[in-house]
Amino acid sequence: MTHRKLVGFTGSFNRPSRSRALVELVADLAAERYNVTANVYDINDLGASLGNARRFADLDAKAQTVLRQITDADVLVVGTPTYKGSYTGLFKHAIDLIDPSALLGTPVILTATGGGDRHALIVEHQLRPLFGFFQAHALPTAVYAADREFVDYRLAAEPIRQRVRQAVAELAPFVGAATKPAAIAAE
């Protein structure tokens, strides 16, 4: 049986970051529960070439490697801080450089963080449609956490930790699958 790979990716520039901490929590729990290899990246890991890239080939080797890790993953956990009601611009730009068929059928856990409750629907109104375009399988339970739910960049709120556990539990049917579905041929 092939060992499964989980990749986390956040749209945050900051380190430490609440968004990255949330994605790492999800990734660590999934790695422990399903014995998958987990790696987490953020915008900083893509480096300076991201801002000038108009297509994948314009990225430097380091950034290309990170995006290949994302597209080759068996499971994705994505997260972003909320910026003016949406994901960060460079997060979207990085995702735009991915081939539209590269995430077909990939299970994705959606996460986001923000200053307060009024941004909680970012996962439903921004992230879910984005990954729907890629025909990825965004899992039903998404996780949003407000700043007040963290202490020293660690998720402290038990109700949100329970959502994390629920989202990870929803991976069960996917981590046993032998392969990702093949892209549908254009007619």
TrEMBL record:
Record's superkingdom? Bacteria
User: Domain NADPH-dependent FMN reductase-like spans what residues?
Assistant: 5-147
Full protein name? FMN reductase
The UniProt GO MF terms for this protein read:
FMN reductase (NADPH) activity
What is this enzyme's EC?
A: 1.5.1.38
User: In which organism is this protein found?
Assistant: Mesorhizobium shonense
So what family is this one in? Belongs to the SsuE family.
Q: Which PANTHER family match?
A: FMN REDUCTASE (NADPH)
